Amino acid sequence: MKDLLQYRPNVAAIVLSSKYPEKIEYFIAKRKGARRSWQFPQGGIDKGETPQEALLRELKEEIGTNKVEIIAEYPEWIKYDFPKNSKNNFYPFKGQNQKFFLVKLLDDEAINLNSFITPEFDEYLFVSEEELFKKAFYLKRKAYKQVIEYFKKEGFLKC
Fold it and tell me: How far apart are the first and last CA of the chain?
């Protein structure tokens, strides 16, 4: 249990475009000021917040909308350590413990990366799964693959 206290509680959203299920497109965004840091929206869970509440708040802050349909929640938490040379460490945490959600943007919802006081992303794309794994930050690829494969296997993500 003490080990988990060293990991910041966090949520991550696998956002599908509103074209799903006719077309599978994953939303990824590039961290502001960082090359090659493409990732899914994610963020910390505030004290007293449920993971679903944090998910909706983080989506609103990071992509300008929380108008989504929650399709599924990954049943486990996935833990990872911050890179040793990372400038984004959240002292006193040595990493994050993430809860993943699969969500679909509602029809006609617009992405606005500049909707929050301090934007975290400066660019975004909707990409195929193949492109996702070419672009995603290397540290996140293993967890992304694990979660996406689970959602496929359980029938939440129809390919």
Answer: 38
Q: Is residue 159 part of a domain?
A: no
Residue 58 lies in a domain: yes
Q: How far is CA 14 from the centre of its chain?
A: 5
- Tokens coding 119: 């934007």
Q: What is the pLDDT of residues 39-98, one digit of tens each?
A: 999 999 999 999 999 999 999 999 999 999 999 999 999 998 887 776 655 667 888 999
**What global pTM score does this model have?**
0.92
Sign of CA pseudo-dihedral 12, 17, 23, 26 = negative
Number of structural domains the chain divides into: 1
Fill in the amino acid letter for 87: K
DSSP state of 99: E
What does DSSP say about strands 38-39 and 95-105: parallel, antiparallel, or unpaired? Answer: unpaired
Looking at residue 87, its pLDDT comes to 62
Reduce the DSSP state of residue 128 to 3 states and report it.
coil
User: How crowded is the C-beta side of 33, counted as CA atoms within 13 Å?
Assistant: 5
